[in-house]
Amino acid sequence: MNFSDSRFSKTGCPTLAAPLFLRLGWxxxxxxxxxxxxxxxxxxxxxxxxxxxxxxxxxxxLTVSHGTIENGVLILAxxxxxxxxxxGKVTIPTGAQIVDAKGLTVxxxxxxxxxxxxxxxxxxxxxxxxxxERSDEIMPHMHVYDxxxxxxxxxxxxxxxxxxxxxxxxxxxxxxxxxxIFIQLYGRDRDDMIMGRDVALAMNYGAEQRRxxxxxxxxxxxxxxxxxxxxxxxxxxxxxxxxxAKRDAPAKKDDAKTDDSKKGEAKKDDAKxxxxxxxxxxxxxxxxxxxxxxxxxxxxxxGYDVEVVMGLAQEFHLKVILxxxxxxxxxxxxxxxYHVPVIIGSIYxxxxxxxxxxxxxxxxxxxAKRGVKIAISSADAGGPASSHSSRxxxxxxxxxxxxxxxxxxxxxxxxQNVADMFGFGDKLGSLDxxxxxxxxxxxxxxxxxxxxxxxxxxxxxxxxMVSRQTRLRDEYSNKQ
Amino acid sequence: xHLQRPLRVSCFAACLILTALCAALPAAAQTAAQTVPQTxxxxxxxxxxxxxxxSHGTILKGSVWVYAGxxxxxxxxxxxxxxxxxxxxxxxxxxxxxxDPHSHSALDSDxxxxxxxxxxxxxxxxxxxNRSADLxxxxxxxxxxxxxLHGSANMIGGQAVVIKNKxxxxxxxxxxxxxxxxxxxxxxENPKRVYxxxxxxxxxxxxxxxxxxMAFEDAKHYMAxxxxxxxxxxxxxxxxxxPKRDLKLExxxxxxxxxxxxxxxxxxxxxxxxxxxxxxxxGYKIRAFHHALEMYKVAxxxxxxxxxxxxxxxxxxxxxxxxDAIPWNAVMSMRKGVKVALKSDSDDHIRRLNSEAGKMVHYxxxxxDEAIRMxxxxxxxxxxxxxxxxxxxxxxxxxxxxxxxxxxxxxARAQKVYIDGDLFFDATLPGLGTTHFNGVMHDxxxxxxxxxxxxx
Lengths: 480, 456
Prior knowledge:
The complex is a heterodimer of chains A (about 475) and B (about 450). Chain A has 14 helices and 18 strands.
């Protein structure tokens, strides 16, 4: 299993820092070395039996991108979808392993847009948690990949219900909590599972974000209020802009000189200057987001908080994905007017007292109706992601259908739309030729709680349908 | 509500009506009867429904006749009079009202009296807020009866209250008339954490159980004093001195006298066995283990004691004692002879217990009948009201839910909810959909799980 997307370097050099690194010769060498090592790791991985060509025949294919094929054939080869179509119209390669999916439903692997996979094992057991850094409100330089524990027992549990990919984000206490990774839920080690590092900046805003000074009257230090949090955010983004300007300014001056002098000399000068400038990792971390190169996921619940934080985001031209938004019933048109994608989670959050019981249940439908590109997360009611419940992701989407979301939109909200939001839309999210062969076979409607997932494929590999929980089940089923 | 999820430590102890309450209840019920609009004696008949009876299978294109708040007939046809109000239930499903045997709704933040590990004289009715929005939302999810339990901070918690979810009615009118009393016990991590963090007893499971034994020894001594006094009085001894009345010991005595159903928050297999051994030693019965996430490991043994379980469908991993939780627990335990109910312990899940039951079709292959029983008749048994509600049978209370879709799927929405034959919720109405509620609802606060207010 290897990822060719150069955007997501597996060398261990944070992508965002690469431009600076690359001006330093020794670092370039180091990176090349690491790249070599990575390449050999990929060769090593190739020692494991290559995925066979698999033909899934007779199933009902929910393609997500081009409707339903009632009696379809899906060919998986080299970890990718090689062909898809109606039975009889797709040639089954000789020697392909035939998987009879008659009476079964076949669909792309589900993608959970907010989890804590690998950052938590037992919620109450502090030593098993690496959810967030509590020392400051502004922590953009925290990288989830540094903590991601790929052997977590939570991942097999989720993938048994058809979740094949996920965004892993820090917990939501900090206004800027760190940077997310995008993973697949299978692989021999961390590097096999992380498909993208620093894919998004995790931001949060509202009543519950940590304030070092405590909250409200009696607070002893800054910030203690929403005003404080926003001002602090604005100052940090300004600082990062200044940092960027300063960092790049000398180089530009030298470039101007270079026109008239020898290039070699100028380069030397440039390197000298960079060696002197101390890198500020916190500021560096914000730069790709200030440049709009990658999305900022803003977790926010209340309508007026959305308006405030979107004001800030627009001020700095951030590329926003809104998250949660479960208290925004009053400003749905406004949200649509931002033209940003929205993750809804938890659909099970409580409405306010006096609101109709389904005021939150109907949010996905109401936003989709307004043309908003939506995703649905597995977050539990009243809180952010709970990866223990990630296996219930399809049921949240089904619940949205019960409250008015068209079925196709619901399926998209946990597949293609999530892939699109995080930059994997061309690799994941639908049953299309050339996409990764992340495919699920189930005995019925994927969004219904009664449905049993029979087989999950990730990059064309039939995943063992076992978890710690199935092992316990089997052990005690057989015990006399 | 957007805090990180609190440790889900639930406790249990629920009990319904306490001693004191036992005495007070009939009076309360009477008052209610006088002040609450009486159910009209009119007939209602549901026609052409898929009737999931919970007791005797599913009737396709079935009818149910309701008269004077009770179920008067059920079958392919019923003998309802021509004057009956007809509810056309074509393409709809009719089930008994959903029953939650483990809720902390409508108790504001007064779930745990976490000031002592033994608080049996607490009565949840004293904290019951009948205008809580959580009741409304549960009603909209088809919940007609709830057991409101004390939290899990204490080895011996307080006494529960059983309500019918007649949202909009007076407090007294929402009490389930003459429901048996229950008391909540807890075990494991919560008590030891709550008291251990204060350097108090208990801080270990050893301490946990010893606290219980000591309490029961006190109760036995108290009972002996009273027995001696009663014997003296019986003999005509007019100088016999009256022992002091002690609410705590009186409540514990009621446990030993078998007057209260014992509902125990308990996760681990070894602790089920210890709890049963202690119940045998002191002569009481355990009605149900709540949470009971490891029941699949020892279900045969517990089945012999006729103790039921009220469990989560698929929660796991929130703390150490939930690490061996598996979603097949409910069905595996059921197959080994344990009566199984699903419960919410959550203001969220209480709104969709029907589809939690649906998950049991997926996890272990429960039949439709078995699954629906886990959220109707079986929880009714745990509460001790299965003779009056929990299934669609002639003579039972007309607690009914009409669904727009198969209630075991997550596509189902409750369309109409009836309690004692009276319509309390109708999704087709504008606004809230309530029929008896006026005024202002209260925000419940928190998640309604018994861990959240346990003194952490």
